[in-house]
Amino acid sequence: MSLYDRLQVGGLDEDDEGGLNIKEYWAVIVRHKFTIILFVIIALVAAAISTSLQTPIYRSSVKLQIDREATRVVNFEGVTPREAAYSYDFYETQYQLLKSRGLAKRVVEQLGLESSDQFKAKEKPSFFHELKRFFSSVPAADTSKDSTHSESSTKGLESLLLANLSVTPVKNSRLVVVSYDSPNPELAARVVNALAKSFIDTTMERRFENSSYAKEFLSDRIKQVRANLEESERKLVEYASQREIVDLESKQSILMQKLEALNSRLTEVEADRIKAESSYQEMQSSGAQGFDSVSDSEVITTYKEKLADLEAQYQDKLNIYKPGYPAMKRLQDQISGLKRKIRQETSDIQASVKSRYQAAVREQAMLQSRMADVKGQILELQRKSTDYQALKRDVETNRELYNGLLQRIKEVGVAAGVGSNNISIIDKGEVPGAAYKPNLKRNLQIALIVGLLGGIGLAFLFEHLDDTIKSSADVEKITGLPVIGVVPEVRLGDESESLALKAYAEPKSAIAEAYRSCRTALSFSSESGTPRILHIASSIAGEGKTTSAISLALTYVQAGLNVLLVDCDLRNPSLHNELALSNELGLTNYLVGGYKPSEIIQTGVVGGLYVMTSGPLPPNPAELLGSGKMESFLQIASEKFDVVILDGPPVLGLADALILANMANASIMVVDAGVTRNDMLKGSVQRLRQAHAHVLGALLVKYGQGRSGYGYDYQYHYNYYSYDAEDAEEHPKLAS
């Protein structure tokens, strides 16, 4: 970042390089605050209208306590599992019974709801529901026919009752809240209380019926089980006597232990046999010399070492003695003896490996034969004991059932079943004094949240669709140019007041400070300082180009420089109007010929400021501006004046600005915050660069308060260094 950019970046955030910029999001919300507020108001009004159009619904609730009841009518201890103190399936069953059609039918009949017009009254559909039906592509069903059919059948009344019934368990307790909604508050209380009473009555009736049925069932079952037990015991005794069976379990246990021991020994022997067979096969395939057992034998190794020593001696003495010499013959006899011993030892090792392998094979075969005998004995024993074990299991099963039934029939009693009630009413349903729904407060809260979210979403949508320049960061991102100044938006109190002269008239104002800051940035823009010929350009007309040119010229005059301000917009000049000067003679008169610059240049509103207006509008502006006379004029003017500022025409659609930018030492693009579009600015800068113009940077004007929405930070920085006329009186100036 350049020095002049750092001087002006007082309003830029250092964390704009990456990450989430909360201030930008907040700026979007502030900029579209009226859209958000309007959306919220529409949502609140719609919610209020919808609420007012709905039929008031009243809710009456009764609170029940349901205790766990473990029914043990036909349960058998040790056969069926015990249920926990709190069983999910038990309570879920109770909740489904509360919403059953049978219970609803009973309540309808008890209260005589078949003839109740209040019960048949339907809830009035909401405003949003009607809108949904109106815009729906699927035609709505004929509710009049459904209503007539529903009202004329008991099934329809049950469905209507269940549709308005809700069962809500109280968390971490045995309580449940049963509620009923109705347009009539008295009817809501009557229905929910009748439902609770009917639920208790039906539970008691089921318990009584179960107890009576259980006693009869258990009595019949005991007789049948007793007969089965006696018959099974008789068959068991007869079978044992015929087969002379005393104790099958102990004999079978002994045989199983033998089989297990044989199996373990067979595993070991089989492993030894595999090892011996592997050694034997290795010996057969590799021969005596390549066999590991022969190679690893210490005796053979010793013999081989001695043989090598003797052969070495024989070779050494062969150089001295002949083979027939007695000493040489003795060495040959020793060598032959060692070779015979090596062969004999090798043969013994091979015979040992073969014998081990054969012994392992014989032992494995013997163990396998023994295991087959034991398995045969076990199978024979099991075959004999199959019928015996089946008869014995029948006896044990019948005895267990008989004992369990005797125990249960002692516990079952009609009086005990009826006397205990596991359901009780904690709070009865009362007539509600206020409607449960629609809830205006809740609907408005929801509408407020929806309105805020929808409004913010709409604001970001508008922001996404808005492709205008809003901040200096946008300028740098789109063009790559630095922002040499940011001029805040100024609202004039009087239409006759000139915005272009405000920086001079009010030197302590924010706009004056902004242009002075721009002047400072221009002084650091190059090694030579401020460009001698400065071209002020914009994408389109009305962006504040002329105002910026006049304000910059006045700031240079305040710095003690002589400034020439030239109106080069030969199509729509406005410099003479802003400064209240005559436009009878101007630049076109000089370029056409017949006038000297000194005859055309006028004195500005302050000493040191000189102005050359455009003059009469020519038919060929581009040819005049691109003439050699224009170049010579600028050369002379740059020598006579400290700074020459050219107020040029818009860049887009015209060649005039490109000609001026090529002649000037530097160009500045004036960007109207909130008006200049991204593609316009990008296209303008590209055109200037194609014309080989030196585009020094951009000047962001009309920034803040209105369209750009970022003005707070910049106005704060400018106002920090400036104060209005009233503050000036309170802060006396230092003596010069």
Automatic annotation (TrEMBL):
Keywords: ATP-binding, Cell inner membrane, Cell membrane, Coiled coil, Kinase, Membrane, Nucleotide-binding, Transferase, Transmembrane, Transmembrane helix, Tyrosine-protein kinase. GO terms for cellular component: plasma membrane. Belongs to the etk/wzc family. PANTHER family: FERRIC ENTEROBACTIN TRANSPORT PROTEIN FEPE (PTHR32309:SF13), TYROSINE-PROTEIN KINASE (PTHR32309). It comes from the Bacteria. Pfam families: AAA_31, GNVR, Wzz. Residues 215-348 form a coiled coil. Its EC number is 2.7.10.2. Residues 533-672 form the AAA domain. It catalyses: L-tyrosyl-[protein] + ATP = O-phospho-L-tyrosyl-[protein] + ADP + H(+). Residues 20-111 form the Polysaccharide chain length determinant N-terminal domain. It is a multi-pass membrane protein. The chain crosses the membrane at residues 34-53. GO terms for molecular function: ATP binding; identical protein binding; non-membrane spanning protein tyrosine kinase activity. InterPro entries: AAA_dom (IPR025669), Bact_polysacc_biosynth/exp (IPR050445), GNVR (IPR032807), LPS_length_determ_N (IPR003856), P-loop_NTPase (IPR027417), Wzc-like_C (IPR005702). It is an enzyme of class 2 (transferase). Residues 390-461 form the Tyrosine-protein kinase G-rich domain. It is found in: Cell inner membrane. This is non-specific protein-tyrosine kinase.
